[in-house]
Amino acid sequence: MLLLYYYFGKQKGNFLLVASMIMLFFIIMLNPYVIAALLFALVYGMIVAYPYIYKENQETHLVYEEDVEIQSEKNRWLGDLQHFSKDSCQFHDINLLRIVGKDTIHLEDVILVNHDNVIVIRKGFGDTKIIVPLDVEIQLQINTLYGELNFLHHPSRKLRNETISLTTPDYKRANKTVKIVLVSFLGNVEVVRK
């Protein structure tokens, strides 16, 4: 129709342009790969669109077989912080996010019972001290930009933009273990036994 419009209309010069474009279209369509690509695109589009076209709006009810225990604790970003320093209690994993402050984590009065005890500390600036009981084995992973590490009786080690992983010898065989992961920008880390 467009070809007839340009042939009988005022713009007869565009007739050749339209005719050549139509001829080019038919020549391209004779290629079997183009036909296969168009058929593939059509079938793929129908497969993708089918769930959206015939979707039934049904309510979904989630049924939990057991109750979920939720514990919520606000993050204190600034200031000094001590964990487990006053009361003896059962250990719950610690996940700290701090900007600035000195952290002291007392584990000597906490009941550690298995291998799944984890302490994760992510902080910007400040020193961290972790006090561990004598009968607990430790795995320590530290990633820091600038600081110093004092791990048990080992000599002090300066940390400069590096990751260190230390494990006590009986970590895999022990009944009580704790895994400590610390990521900091600037600050010293001390792990001692009492």
TrEMBL record:
InterPro entries from the UniProt entry: Cell_wall_LiaF (IPR016975), DUF7649 (IPR056066), LiaF-like_C (IPR024425), LiaF_C (IPR047793)
Q: Which residues cross the membrane?
A: 12-29, 35-54
> What organism is listed for this UniProt entry?
Streptococcus sanguinis SK72
Protein's UniProt name:
Transporter YvqF
Q: Which residues form the Cell wall-active antibiotics response LiaF-like C-terminal domain?
A: 77-191
Upper taxonomic classification of the species? Bacteria, Bacillati, Bacillota, Bacilli, Lactobacillales
Gene name, Swiss-Prot/TrEMBL: yvqF
Question: Where are the annotated coiled coils located?
Answer: none
Alphabetized, the UniProt keywords read:
Membrane, Transmembrane, Transmembrane helix
Among its keywords, does the record have Transferase?
no
Q: Where is the DUF7649 domain?
A: 2-47
GO CC annotation terms, alphabetical = membrane
Taxonomically, which superkingdom? Answer: Bacteria
